Amino acid sequence: MENNLKDLTIGLFAKAAGVNVETIRFYQRKGLLLEPDKPYGSIRRYGEADVTRVRFVKSAQRLGFSLDEVAELLRLDDGTHCEEASSLAEHKLQDVREKMADLARMESVLSELVCACHARQGNVSCPLIAALQGEKEPRSANAV
């Protein structure tokens, strides 16, 4: 199918792009993908540029870009706005680093609580439940 990406029905287009038909329609409603004209008495047809655009959207989403951010990247896709695209990527990278730091804090607290649960030695109260109820805060309490 990769060699013949012209005059595709929406079903074949979705398959070629690796998404489902509802994703295509959703992207159209969001303005990420244009809806082709529908010739009288016929069906809409999609082409290679449409497949490429959907793949672009999916690739950007895999890197953590929101659909609004993807729309901005699509606006910059003529290749002459590298500085703006780079700025968007730098902001996304900072977001990713902040999320990674948050996840590391969460891992530390959860690891501490799991160890406390395993070492409770006859205590009636579960350390995890107690920490979540605010009865006893773990050392990294601000992460809970």
What does this structure look like?
The chain has 144 residues and is mainly α. It has a domain at 1-75: Orthogonal Bundle (Multidrug-efflux Transporter Regulator, Chain: A, Domain 2). 59% of the residues lie in helices and 0% in strands. It is built from six helices and no strands. The protein has helices spanning 10-17, 21-30, 48-62, 67-75, 82-118, 127-132. α1 packs across α3 (48-62). It is elongated, with a radius of gyration of 24 Å.
Descriptive key words:
mainly alpha; Multidrug-efflux Transporter Regulator, Chain: A, Domain 2; 59% helix; 144 residues
Structural class: mainly alpha
Largest sheet: none
CATH topology group of the domain at 1-75: Multidrug-efflux Transporter Regulator, Chain: A, Domain 2
Mean pLDDT: 89
Order of helices and strands: HHHHHH
Which stretches are poorly predicted, pLDDT < 50 over at least 5 residues? none
Short summary:
The protein has 144 residues and is an all-alpha fold.
Secondary structure: elements and pairs:
Layout: H1 10-17, H2 21-30, H3 48-62, H4 67-75, H5 82-118, H6 127-132
Helix pairs in contact: 1-3, 3-4
